[in-house]
Design brief:
The chain is an all-alpha fold. It has 5 helices and no strands.
């Protein structure tokens, strides 16, 4: 079934932990190696990959090492006004 409802914070959290783990593995980094390179404790990294809990600062440190920090630049970015009708587009 297709859903047009926005994702819940919990769903986004689950997606993030899955994507970060996949990115770590794609870069062939162990949890310990990523912990050392990022300065994020191994316990914090393990908790993030298992249940999605992590501080924002630690998340951004991981993103830097995993080469996806730029993805966060679009968060809360002002969006262009959307047309209200097809006539507004023409």
């Amino acid at each position: 079934m297709l859903s047009f409802l926005p994702k819940t914070p919990s769903e986004i959290q689950d997606e993030l932990k899955t994507k970060f783990r996949a990115k770590r593995k794609a870069l062939k980094l162990t949890q310990e190696e990523l912990s050392i390179k990022s300065g994020v404790s191994l316990g914090s990294l393990k908790r993030f990959e298992s249940c999605g809990e992590i501080s924002l600062q630690s998340l951004l440190k991981l993103a830097l090492v995993l080469e996806c920090l730029g993805d966060f630049e679009g968060v809360c970015k002002e969006r262009e006004e959307m047309p209200e009708s097809i006539e507004d587009l023409l």
